[in-house]
Design brief:
Layout (H helix, E strand, L loop, with lengths): L5 H27 L2 E11 L3 E11 L2 H8 L4 E11 L7 E15 L4 E6 L5 E4 L2 H8 L1 E9 L8 E10 L6 H9 L10 E6 L1
Antiparallel strand pairs: 1-2, 2-7, 3-4, 3-8, 4-5, 5-6, 8-9
Length: 195
């Protein structure tokens, strides 16, 4: 039996290891290129409440994009929290809630539909970028009543966007549990709230 000489086997092993390293380095980069990042935000006050306007840029992973184009609705959850930092204990949580919107593509009509689960508002778009913009935005959302905030105290608003994989159809939900391509989530963004 003809075996390759030792130096040829060593070269093949080094080449295999280099290819494996390149693949491992490429995979996390590909997985992290998709997700949500805050594009703009502002807080507005009236006499009684603080309101939030925010918009996220969206980069869907290949799997999420294929699912959307196949008619699978995608659920976005904007998580909002108001906390009061405390020095010697965990931060006190004054408010916590989510704003959920759904994005759906109809292949026959070639239209995107964005449904706000909180208000029931349904909007239709011909352009994908306009639909993604509406899907990942919140406008004039009431955050907290001023009567809940004590004058002179410090408060922090926290905001994060994430794809809610628990709302996917059952066969996809199982895949989403193990695939990094479905872990689409932003970092937590924070702003100080005056007391």
């Amino acid at each position: 039996m003809n075996r390759p000489p030792p130096h040829a086997r060593s070269y093949a092993n080094r080449l295999s290891a280099a290819l494996l390293m390149a693949m491992l380095m490429w995979l996390p980069a590909a997985a992290h290129s998709a997700g949500f990042s805050l594009a703009g935000s502002d807080l507005r006050n009236d006499d009684t409440h603080t309101y939030l306007n925010a918009r996220f840029d969206v980069a869907l992973s290949r799997e999420a994009e294929e699912a959307l184009q196949s008619g699978v609705p995608l659920q976005l959850e904007l998580q909002i929290r108001v906390t009061q930092p405390r020095r010697w204990w965990w931060d006190a949580e004054l408010a916590e809630f989510s704003v959920r919107t759904e994005l759906l593509y109809h292949a026959l009509s070639r239209r995107y539909v964005v449904l706000n689960h909180e208000t029931g508002e349904r909007r239709t778009f011909f352009r994908r970028d306009a639909a993604l913009n509406a899907w990942a935005s919140v406008a004039s959302r009431k955050v907290i009543a001023h009567e809940q905030l004590e004058s002179g105290e410090r408060y922090v608003l926290h905001l994060r966007a994430r794809l809610d994989t628990d709302r996917l159809p059952h066969p996809l939900r199982t895949v989403a549990l193990v695939s990094p391509e479905w872990r689409l989530v932003s970092e937590w963004y924070t702003w100080p709230l005056p007391g």
